Amino acid sequence: QVQLVESGGGLVQPGGSLRLSCAASGSISRYNAMEWYRQAPGKQRDLVATITSDGSTNYVDSVKGRFTISRDNAKNTVYLQMNSLKPEDTAVYYCNAVHLVRPGLRRNYWGQGTQVTVSS
User: For 49, which of 98, 110, 116, 120 is 20 to 30 Å away at the CA?
Assistant: First the structure.
């Protein structure tokens, strides 16, 4: 089972930038997709961005044009570059590795999360 460790969170002012990293204990190329989620206090965990094994990306509308997900298979690391940050981006950000066992059944492997706080 892969272990995922997120880093790069912190406190940033509105309009600022952060780059989150998700380091995996093994090869990330074996997973169908790598995802970033976020969870704000009192809210559910929501999908933010996805990158598939072939490099295709997808984003939730609220972060399009501001966030960029990327992967470095050689380093077994996934990144989330976050620009033009807003207070509403404040949340714990989680990395997830997706294994599609069969159609309709996926297995998720989660990291422990990293806190991002956007405030002046």
Answer: 120
pLDDT in tens, 46-72: 999 999 999 999 999 999 999 999 999
Instruction: Give whole-number Cα distances, 23 to 34, 39, 80, in Å.
Output: 11, 20, 12
> What's the CA angle centered on 66, arms 7 and 32, to 5 degrees?
60
- Give φ, ψ of 72 to 5 degrees: -125, 100
- CB neighbours of 39 closer than 8 A, spacing ≥ 6? 45, 46, 91, 92, 94, 113
Average pLDDT estimate for 83-92: 98
> What's the rounded mean pLDDT across residues 23-46?
95
DSSP string, 36-65: EEEE-TTS-EEEEEEEETT--EEE-GGGTT
Q: Hey, what amino acid is at 67?
A: F
Q: Which residues pair with 23 in a beta bridge?
A: 5, 77
